[in-house]
């Protein structure tokens, strides 16, 4: 590629999620409320886990780290999408576009690895209960959390490495509400076949590896749970497992469809992208927290503890709202 011979596009134009003006007002209000709920719901998990010593176990520490990923995953593109509902033209600078691509892959990659780490934690707890304390100490837990960030960043850098240097010289219309790598890469004024295949392999390998690790660990766990179905602790294990498997399905389901469909240009992909960046982050706090007795009682404890202070009483109103 000859980099000296063209002038790079200064910005990209996003077509957004929908073109009807009436729907845009509705979406503006709807996604605003949803975004606020995502941030508050996930912050609630983080603060509950941090302030309740009984929840300082690997499972809950990873859960609150998952909430941090969720907040980031909902924040790299959604606020701009909400802003863009009421603004024309929807443009994004070249650098902004690359930043969105980078952040998406850091957070989505990191979240995948963390979901695998959480499955591993449940695998050790259920299948090797006698060794749990020695295998899953706080040190291992920190290693898994740091590892998910490192893998996320490395995966993202490898994706960007062959994107930023492509010649973007003319077409700059992205038919989405954010800079999606699979769409942006097609705009380069060069044969993008090899970069597209590399990108697909990179993301596909990352996704498929995590997905199969999850599949294996949950299968082993389910078989173990089934074999010991008489034990009292297994009912609890089963409800935790249901929560995990629901979240994993909701996270990977849309991802798989996006990648399968992206190369056949069907309109569903925008809806699925919204699903993984907006609905998964709100579902995590709902599924993990509101169905989990320990988290519920920790929230209740917090609520009664700080009910006198003004800020906290406002927060507890929000908690009440969320619990009802
Ligand atoms: C995330 O994990 C790290 C390492 O285990 C832990 O120290 C930290 O408190 C966690 N963060 C949150 C918000 O829970």
From TrEMBL:
The keyword Signal does not apply. It is a multi-pass membrane protein. Belongs to the G-protein coupled receptor 1 family. Residues 41-288 form the G-protein coupled receptors family 1 profile domain. It is found in: Cell membrane; Membrane. Keywords: Cell membrane, Disulfide bond, G-protein coupled receptor, Membrane, Olfaction, Receptor, Sensory transduction, Transducer, Transmembrane, Transmembrane helix. GO terms for molecular function: G protein-coupled receptor activity; olfactory receptor activity. Gene3D superfamilies: Rhodopsin 7-helix transmembrane proteins. Its main location: membrane. The lineage of its organism: Eukaryota, Metazoa, Chordata, Craniata, Vertebrata. The chain crosses the membrane at residues 25-47, 59-78, 98-120, 132-151, 205-225, 237-259, 271-290. GO terms for cellular component: plasma membrane. It comes from the Eukaryota. It comes from Theropithecus gelada. This is Olfactory receptor. InterPro entries: GPCR_Rhodpsn, GPCR_Rhodpsn_7TM, Olfact_rcpt, Olfactory_Receptors.
């Amino acid at each position: 590629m000859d980099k000296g011979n063209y002038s790079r596009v200064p910005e990209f134009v996003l077509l957004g999620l929908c073109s009807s003006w009436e729907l845009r007002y509705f979406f503006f209000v709807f996604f605003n409320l949803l975004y606020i709920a995502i941030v508050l719901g996930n912050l609630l998990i983080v603060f509950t886990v941090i302030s309740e010593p009984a929840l300082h176990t690997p499972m809950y520490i990873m859960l609150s780290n998952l909430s941090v990923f969720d907040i980031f995953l909902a924040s790299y593109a959604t606020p701009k999408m909400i802003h863009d509902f009421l603004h024309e033209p929807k443009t994004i600078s070249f650098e902004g576009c690359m930043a969105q691509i980078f952040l998406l892959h850091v957070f989505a990659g990191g979240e995948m690895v963390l979901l695998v780490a959480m499955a591993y934690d449940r695998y050790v707890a259920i299948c090797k209960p006698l060794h749990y304390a020695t295998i899953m100490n706080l040190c291992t837990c920190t290693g898994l959390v740091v590892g998910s960030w490192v893998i996320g960043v490395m995966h993202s850098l490898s994706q960007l490495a062959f994107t930023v240097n492509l010649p973007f010289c003319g077409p700059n219309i992205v038919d989405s509400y954010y800079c999606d790598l699979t769409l942006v890469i097609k705009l380069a004024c060069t044969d993008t076949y090899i970069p597209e295949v590399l990108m697909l392999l990179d993301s596909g390998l990352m996704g498929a590896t995590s997905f199969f690790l999850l599949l294996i660990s949950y299968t082993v766990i389910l078989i173990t749970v089934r074999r010991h179905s008489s034990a009292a602790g297994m009912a609890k294990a089963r409800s935790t497992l249901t929560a995990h498997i629901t979240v994993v399905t909701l996270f990977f389901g849309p991802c798989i469809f996006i990648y399968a469909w992206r190369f056949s240009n069907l309109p569903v992909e925008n809806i699925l992208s919204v699903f993984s960046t907006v609905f998964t982050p709100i579902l995590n706090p709902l599924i993990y927290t509101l169905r989990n007795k320990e988290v519920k009682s920790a929230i209740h404890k917090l609520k009664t503890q700080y009910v006198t202070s003004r800020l906290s009483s406002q927060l507890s109103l929000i908690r009440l709202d969320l619990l009802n």
